[in-house]
Write a structure and sequence with these properties.
324 residues, alpha/beta, 7-stranded parallel β-sheet, 11 helices, 45% helix, binds nicotinamide-adenine-dinucleotide
């Protein structure tokens, strides 16, 4: 199948591309290699694909460029992962998030519609649940109380997807990812940042009293869910579904820090700070729907995933030191 992966140079995207290559799909990646974090990480991700992948370096906010790439590739399916990610930075620069995540998603859907590329998998986020008090979160909960511009852009993206299904007969699966981690995790995310700080004897910033809870999802499980969604959208009749992809296990911030300390064999120096605006008190996924319809079967609980992450982190840094 001819597949276009937006954001394919990023953390989740590069894992998805490597998985798609195993099935001999024809793959094109769109990515603007922006500097939200060190772009050399994204270049290294692309260099590690180890198979034929077309790279289109472009910005999805540019409608003309988006249309040109879609016309050139004529994808049969689109996996739309490109976005400005991250809750806190979206509060600092909401316009960038709205332009990238809403206008960018609109451009992808519109270009796909014009070419008759009906099958889309869209990366949404657990952040859409905002202040929902009932846990675990189910896909049919109302999502009206978000805590960040980032979350609002993801709901807007889901709505645009629903719109394109109802008006234009597309087949779209929206996947609400719950905090994803594993080899290659973005350096701005807590597990990566904490590991780096503890390993190097720097203090870590703990916002709040350590009782906030997250459903942390291992990258291989997310990739399995994305593959399930890609098969699910393969067909003819219009289709719109939203799925939670989590591990369905929650971990407090304090427990997370302990697990990283244990895997590293080092103690954290903790700097305690007040809770941050935009942070959700809890995320917890009900994954019944994904299990039933996508065959989603997460298999790496956090007690196994953190040591795996720490091994990857140490290997990466010892390789980097060897290169110096
Ligand atoms: P990432 O930043 O590593 O990947 C996103 C990629 O999109 C980057 O390579 C970036 O350069 C590219 N991109 C951004 N804006 C672009 C634009 N205007 N044009 C073209 N390319 C652009 O982030 P990630 O963690 O891999 O996240 C992938 C997707 O999953 C995002 O949509 C994110 O919102 C969503 N998500 C991630 C998590 C998580 O925990 N990592 C959780 C929930 C949802």
């Amino acid at each position: 199948m001819k597949i276009l992966v937006t954001g394919g140079a990023g953390f989740i995207g590069s894992h998805v591309v490597r998985r798609l290559l195993k099935n001999a799909h024809s793959i094109t990646v769109i990515d603007d290699f922006n500097d939200f974090y060190d772009p050399s990480i994204k270049r290294a991700n692309v260099a590690s694909f180890g198979g034929p992948v077309e790279i289109e370096e472009m910005d999805l906010r540019d409608w003309g460029a988006t249309q040109r790439v879609f016309e050139k590739v004529r994808p049969e399916a689109v996996i739309h992962l490109a976005a400005r990610a991250g809750v806190r930075p979206s509060i600092a620069d909401p316009k960038l998030y709205i332009d990238t995540n809403i206008t960018g998603t609109f451009h992808v859907l519109e270009a796909a519609r014009l070419l008759g590329s009906k099958k889309v998998v869209f990366a949404s986020s657990s952040s859409v649940y905002g202040l929902s008090k009932t846990v675990p979160f189910r896909e049919d909960f109302p999502v009206l109380q978000t805590l960040s511009p980032y979350a609002a852009t993801k709901i807007a993206g889901e709505h645009l997807c629903g719109n394109y299904v109802n008006l234009h007969g597309m087949r779209i699966a929206c996947l609400r990812f719950f905090t994803v981690y594993g080899p290659g995790q973005r350096p701005d995310l807590a597990i990566h940042g904490f590991t780096d700080a503890i390993e190097n004897g720097r203090p870590i910033k703990q916002f709040g009293d350590g009782s906030t809870r997250r459903d942390y999802t291992y990258i291989d499980d997310i990739v399995q869910g994305v593959m399930g969604a890609l098969s699910y959208v393969d067909g003819e009749e219009p289709l719109f579904e939203i799925f939670n992809l989590g591990e369905s296990e929650t971990t407090t911030l304090s427990q997370l820090i302990s697990k990283i300390e244990k895997a590293l064999g080092k103690k954290a120096i903790i700097e305690r700070l007040p809770e941050q605006k935009g942070d959700m008190p809890i995320t917890a996924a009900d994954i019944t729907k994904a299990r039933t319809l996508l065959g989603y079967a997460p298999s790496t609980p956090i007690r196994e995933g953190i040591p795996k992450f720490v091994s990857w982190y140490r290997e990466l840094h010892s390789r980097k030191q060897g290169e110096r």
